[in-house]
Every structure is written in structure tokens, then in C-alpha cells.
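TEACHING EXERCISE
Course module: macromolecular assemblies
Task: Read the component lines below, then compare them to the predicted structure of the full complex.
Student: A.B.
Group: 4
Components provided:
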Amino acid sequence: MNRYLANVNGWTIGAILIIILLFVPNVSIVTGIFSPASENWAHIKEYMLLKYIKSSLTLVFFTALFTGAIGLSLAWLIAQYDFPLRNFMKWALILPLSIPPFIGAYTYHGIVNYTGVIQKTLRNQFDITPNPAFFDIMNVPGAIFIYTIFLYPYVYMITRIFLSHQSASLIESARTLGKGPWEIFSKVVIPISRVSIIGGVSLVVLEVLNDYGVVKYFGIQTFSTAIFQTWFGLGDLDSSIKLAASLMGIVIFILIIERLLRGGKQYSYSTTKVRPLPLVKLKGKSAVFATIYTLIIFSVAFLIPVIQLIDWVILTFGKVPMEEVLTYTKNSVTVAVISATLIIVFSLIVGNFSRIVHHKLAKLLPKLTILGYSIPGAVIAVAVVTTFIALDRNFAPIYQFFGVESALVLSVSLFMLISAYVIRFFAIGYNSIESGFDKIGTDFRDASRMLGANSMRTFFKIDVPMMKGAIISGFVLVFVDILKEIPLTLILRPFNYDTLATKAFQYASDEKIMEASQASLLIVGVSAIAIIVFHKLLREEP
Amino acid sequence: MFIDIQNLSFTYSNSSMKAINDISFTVEKGEVISILGRSGSGKSTILRIIAGLEMPNGGSFILNGKKIMDTRTFIQPEKRGIGMVFQDYALFPHMNVEENILFGLSKMSRNDKKKRTNEVLELVELEGFEKRYPHQLSGGQQQRVALARAIAPEPDLILLDEPFSNLDTDLQVKIRGDLRRILKKANTTAIFVTHNVNDAHALADRIVKIKDGKIEKIGRPCDLLGLSTSELPSTVEKASEELLTV
Amino acid sequence: MKKSLIFLLVTMMLVLSACGSAGNTSSTNEATKTGSEVDSGEVNLYTSRHYDVDNELYKKFEEETGIKVNVIKGEADELIERIKREGTATKADILLTADVGRLYRAKEDGLLQAASSDTLSKQVPSNYRDNDDMWVGLTKRARVLVYNKDKVKPEELSTYEALTDDEWKGRVLVRSSESVYNQSLLASFIEINGEEKAKEWAQGIVNNFARNPEGGDRDQAKAIAAGIGDVAIMNTYYFGQMLNSQEPEEVKVAENLGVFFPNQETTGAHVNISGAGVVKGSKNADNALKLLEFLTGEEAQAEFASANYEYPVNNNVEPSELLKSWGEFKEQDIPLSTLGENNAKAIMIFNEVGWK
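Instructor-supplied answer key:
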């Protein structure tokens, strides 16, 4: 009897099709690593590669360290303690995710540079001319600062949810054993949250490796600089794809490390036994400290840049054309909602497949889709364009049959951009959905089927409602990411199609950060609304 | 014969050892069977194969004259007409008691559904708990809801996986009695898995003892210990516990 | 759910069928070469310029001619790559970039077609047009020296080359070599002085850096004001932006700085152009040409000059008052296409001398 026969159903077929869809464009990149070296390769190796890898690793290492430390400490404070402003901070600390790092970099530089508010005030009001080097953030430490404050929410979010749902008995038993808070933190909290910290930090690492906006503006040479120098400067796309493929290799390496660190541990619980962690009320000094600490992080990572953006919006009011802003906002929200929905639906299909099919490949294949997240957007764009133009060529007879005169239909439609988003951000949505499936385990599914419900009914009546939290958080993360996305949107959009991000980029890339503030602020606003709605929806859960 | 299981064998995909090796037994209608064995003996796997949640390497299974599984047949779990009570009950946390029970009653009229729900709740003595959510119930109550939910669609066979493992000791004794009463009253054929010899003796009409994936012994509780059911007093409990400590 | 499954299946069919024959592009090319494209009259523009004034000009063109202009914006190299991949089926009619090097690259890749007319020749001097009429300049920018009026006398300044002298040690500010403006500056030196001299120059500038390159052109001006360095290499265009900034502090900074056109006695100041070419396979080459004529016409050129602090290429149009106040200047006398030819070499030199 074929053991796997029972598993070959709609789920398997659907999941495998999705995985292929996500892979196809990346294949051209993977094969790039084997392409013969061009005459530029020796130069790239000697003058760019090693040096750039070093600075990339420096950025990655320290950003990982700081986002890990800040994310974990905040998660622990919020999950375990009650203090003034705690309920506000619980969700407000996610808000920095709504600021695209390159906008954050421009904004912070705008604040601290010679004509920025700090030096200006010191100079004009107090007649103090500080050493400008003191305010220089356009260097490696500055970039680490920018990445840390705008990316730590990944770690914070994932770790906090873990701590407040899964740690009650462990932390309580530590308390009854007479351990103090610091001891509990170092001996219990850190070890048990390892998996979620690593999960969050690896998202941060991928973002950093991939970022081009911040390092380009700051004049820091990293691996992604090398990729674009090679393409834009040397005009050698093949070598640049070869570099991107090596980057992919590094990412696979990181993923394997992550797997090893995780040690195959899976945290699955049956919901009836899960108790939320009761909050300990902080008093006196420690309460003040907790409030101040969270307030500082929130101010630095969100409040201050937003105030600066608002200030610039007022300053440039009337100078930036306003009439089309609504269209841009609508465009941004529409593509983000469609793409995020597709990603979540696809993730659910693949996640369910991975859960019910007991085969190593079923666990491994979905993990590989994270590759899309590891390749610089502009390189994915090339792969996607190639794929869609090949599609259009194949469909030429069909187009003609329907009387469509143009030879390019799909590749000039919004469909191409949406597909590219799906390829790029699938990993973010899938991460969330997978942990949702991990959490509910398979018992409820089995129970449902024993009650006569087929796979479909089980999925919609049991799995989906139980995973509401994971679905919403996955959706919001993807939505916010797409809203911020730049290289794919720029290059793959249809004619005359502008979004908030392309508008903001258009001004920022021309060193007109003040003019960019309007669109930037709208990105932040829309993302913030999504995050707040997400928070409200989750709170209503029984 | 109501249930006929022949030559069941099973290997986990990540191991070469047979977890289940050539298991055969039969069950009469209305009989309560206990599969008794230590943890790791493969007893839960047998239950999951009968339920259709695992696919065996070989063997056949006939239920009420219907071929459920053989070399060419594999009926999906939801089509088998088998109910199951899970070890941790698996009550759907987003549904209240009534909704949990109604979930299995899809092919009935609204009135019949309501009637049947009341019937089973009465059977497990939980009238008035319809609107409670699982997390608002005690462990014993949860177990009874799980039982009511499994019985409600009137399955040909009901499976119970370690039904007492999550309960306090004194609760165990009471529920054990209740369970046998409920099963007999509903005239349900049942197979339950346990590692506890007392549970097996108190509940089962017959016991299938499993060791290392093979059947060690089958027989009535009295046959296995040389005592009749009526003579099973608490004195035996201690002795047997020592014999078969888990 | 069903719907999405169907959608999924359709998508997959599309993708799979694409994989089947992605290899034999030559045969599929023929299928698209039907030539029966309907002339919708619209002009599709791929542009790497992101300025509001450009949009206004397209609108004006639409009003005057009834020809609609559709736009995709992106980085020049990404757009070139996209046209390359779209091949003969491309929807693009015009490629517009803010750097002549990219136009050269597009021409070399065979992506452009010749487009000329009497009007165009009249409006644009031949040194801002391609020899083979593959592209035409729209606006120009000079890369000049900007200095601290308090610390540097204009007499001390002379040439780009003089900045490598020891007296400028620790005083020179310039952005990173990733900027295409620096790349074409060095490319022009390779053309004029030869590769070896160009490398010496780059090395000399690196030795005289006031700090490691960071930020954009505007940031170099601010660094002068902050006292980090005394002289910066920057584009006239950004200096104009600063003088008219919404932030009064930026205006103050710019007002303390002077503009100096270097190499006036010798080889001339470096100039780069924004330009455009008609894409090979354009379905609307006629209308595309009309748009190029419009953009180089007096009305549009005046707009460019006033709104964006760029120098017009049309000799009949005067630069803005601000630009005029800096005086006339002598430009480098080299074919602009050499900036593209030498671009890759320039980057390698930058890497070799360690110009970040």
C-alpha cells in the first residue's frame, strides 16, 4: 500500500504548485553562481568583495546583537510586568516598523546635521558651535543605530508573544524557587526565548544584508553596494547576479545555523492548558525605570522622527503637489492588501501541507522559499521581468486569438508587480503562519476529522479561527513591508502607477528629504493604522 | 463479527523498526475493549490506525461489514463513522460546549441537532453547560464534553486515548464508573488505550495486552489474572500495580 | 477558497508553460514581430528623472498635441535591463536618463534607434547630440567647486587638478564614488589626460580628503559650513536647490559659499547631461520624436532652467537668473559619449585608490 497516498490531495498539489511558482524566477539567479566569471571578476574580488563582506558582517553582527538585546528586554518587561504606560507601549513599541529604514536614515541625518534642528538651535539660540563630528551619523555605527531602532520590533513582537503565552509555568516555578528578577531573566527567560529571538533576529539580518538605501546614502560599502556597483557602475549584470547568488549562499548558511541553534525543537501546546503569564506590578523606582526605558526607545525610534517629518510637511506645505496624494495612497494600499492576502492564503496552503505530510521534504521545501527574502529586490526584479516576458511570449497566440494587439500584456500589468511581492515577502507571511500551525499542533485537526469534517471544513472551521492571531500578524507584517518596498515597486509597476513609497523615494533620492516628508508620513500613518487595528483585533480574542 | 482487524503492521517514516507488528483481533458489537501496554509499546499507534489518522504498511480492517482498509482501500477518517476522545480532549477552544458538540452533527435537521445535543449532555450530566467555553471547565468536565462530542454523531465505534491520564486520582475512579455506565447505556462499541491496569480491569470487557508492537495476550480481565470481574476488589489493584508498573 | 485555487492553477499553468520554452527565444521573437501593432498614438516613457517639473512638461505636451505620455520611473540601469529583456516587443518609446553614460550604454546594447529632424538639430547644438542621432541632450549640469568665502579666496582656486596639491590636504570634500556624477567626472579625465593621470588625480584627491566620503552633494556644502573642509566638488544643480530651500538654515549655509568654475584656462569645467533617445522597436517613433522636439523647444527649456536650476541645452534659452549670476563658463571639449565609454574604467580606478 502506498503510505503517502492518503496525503496526495488538494493540499499537496496546491502547495507544490505554489512552491514552484515562488522558485521559478529565482532559478535564473541560482544558476548565475555557476556562470563563468567575466573579465571584471578579478577586479571585483580584489577591490570589492572581501572589504565589503567585512563591513556587511560588522553591520549584521552589531545590529543582530542590539536588536536582540533591545527586543528581548522590551518583550520581557511588557510580558511580565505592569507599569505606567505599559498597555500603550505594548503596541506602540511595534510602530517603528512602519518607518522605512532609508527614510529613517534621511530623517535622522536631517535632525543632526549642520542645518538640522539640534545644531541649528545650539548655534543660533545658545551661540554654541559644537564639533560637527560629534553629530556625524553617516558611518558604520550610525547605520547600526538606524537599523537597530527601526528593525528591533521584529524581535520584540515575536518574543513578546512567545513569553506571554508560553512561559507562565516556567517563570512562575522559578519565582517560587526564590529567584530574583535578574536571575530569572538570565537563567530562564533568555534560554527559553532563544528560538523566538533567533527567529526575529534572522529577519533583521536578512533586512540588513539586503538594504541598499541606508548604506548608499551613508557612503558605507557593503555586499549590496558591491552588487549594485557591479551592475550600475561596471554595467556587468552577470557578475552582479553572481554576487547576489553568493549572498544567497550566505543566507542559506545562516538558515542552517539557525536550524542548528534551534536544535529541531518545536513548541506545540494544546490550547486548553495554556495560561497567560500574570503580570507583576512594579512599584517605585523600578516602575519609573521601566516607563522611562520604554519611553526612550519609543521616542528615539518613532516619536522623534515622526515629529521631524511633520515639521517638514508643514515647512513644504503647498510646494509639493497635493492633488494626487489620494491616488498614491489608494494605489499603495490596494497592492499591499492584494499581495498580503495572496501571501497569507498561499502560506496557509503550504503550511497546512507541511504540517500534514510527514515527509522531510515537506518540512524543508517551504523553508527554502525564504530565499526570495534574501536576494536584493532589484535582482529579483530582473528575474521576474525575465519570467513574465517569457510568459508573454508563450501567450502571444492566445493574445492574438482574443484580439489583443500588444505582445506584452502580463509584463506591463499590475499582476507582475504583485507576483514579485509574493515572491519577495512570502517568507515573512509564512514564518508567521508556520508558527501558528506549530502552536495548534495536529490534535484539533484530528479531532475534527474524527467528527466527520473533511479537510476543507476542518481548515475553515478549526484551523483558520484558531490561527486568527498568526494570520492577522502575518498579514500586517507583510502589508507594512510592501508599503515600504522600493526597488521592485519602482521597476515593475505599470505605466503611470505611483505609490507612496515611489513618491517618497523620488524626492529622497534627489536629496529633497523635506519634499519627501509628505509621502513618508503617509506611509508611516497607514502602517501605524494597520498595526493598531491588528492590536485591537488580537485583544478581542477570548 | 462487528470489527475484524487482521495483520496490522506499521513503521514510522523515520525508523526501520516496526512499531506495530502483525496485530489481529476482533470485537463484538457493544463490547468495550482495552488496549493495555506501557508507553512506547505501540498501543496509541493502533488506535490512530483504526481512526485513519495513520496509514499502516499492511493489514485489513472491517467495521460493521464495511471494508474500511486493506491493500487497496483506504477510507478517510471523516468517512469511517468512528468517534474519538483524545488524550488532552482537543476541545475546540474557540467554540463553546454546544458548538463543540454540534460540530459533529452536520447531517441533521436543526431540531434533531438540538435534541441530540441535549441527550448527550444529559448522558454526561452536564446540562446547563451549553454556553461555557472549554477553558471555563474543570478537567473532569472537559473530559465528559469530549466524550459527549464523540458519542453525539452515534458512531459505530468510539476510540478513547488514555482517557484518564489528565485527571486527579480520586476523579479517575469516579469517572471510570461513569464512563462504563455511559458507554453501556449508549450501547457503544469502544476501544480504549491505557497504560493503567486498574483502568483496564475496571472498564473493559476484554483486554488486549501489547508489548513491543505485538499482542502479548488477549482475554477477559478475569482470564488474564485468573479472577472474575466481580471479584476484582481493591486488594488486587495493589498487587497488579506492582506486576505491571509503568 | 475555490476561487483562489482556480486562480492558483491558472497562474501555475502560465508559469509552467513559460518554463517549457524559455530557452528558444529566437523562434518566439518572430511571433511577436507581426508588425500589426496599432498606433495608439501614446508615447511610453522610461525615465530615471524624478522631477515634478518633468511631469508638468508632459502634461503640457499632452494639452498641446493631444498625445498622451505614459511614464515608468526607475533607476536607469534597471530600465535599460527591462528594455533589453522586453526585446522587440517593448512598449517603451523613449528612454530618458539623468546621465549620458547610461545613454551610451543603451546605445551600445543596441536599444536605441536614430531619430533626427531639422527642428531637433536647430534646437540642440551638435555637441549635445549623439553622432549617430541615437540620443539628444535635454539639460546640462556642471560639476564645479564650491568654497568657503571666509577661508578661501577664489584666486587660490584654479583647476580640479590643483586640488591634489599639498596645500589642500585635509580640506577637500566630495561624495562617494558610487555617485554617477563622480564617475563621469573621472571618466572625462581619463579621456582628456589618459588613464594614468586620471588615477593620479583620484589618488591625490583621496590623499586630501577632509573626511571619508559620506552623504550627497548637499551634505558636502553643509560640511564646509560646519568647518570640516574648505572646498567641495558638487553639482550646480544641488547648489541651486540649497539657495532656494524651504529650510532657512540651508539657505544661510549656501549664501556663505562661493561657486567656482574650474579649469577655465585649461580644459574646461565638467558637464554632464540629462538626455533621451528613441527606443528601438518603438511603436510610436514619430510621436516620440515630437516629444523630444517639445522638450528641447524654447518653452520647455525655459521651464527646466527656472524650476530645476539646470542649464538649458537650447542656445536660444537663457539660464535662470541665479545660474546667470555665476557667470558664463568654458566646458570640457570632449564627446559626451566618452563619459559612458570610460565609466567602468573610472569605477575600477576609484576602487583601486580607495575612494569609498
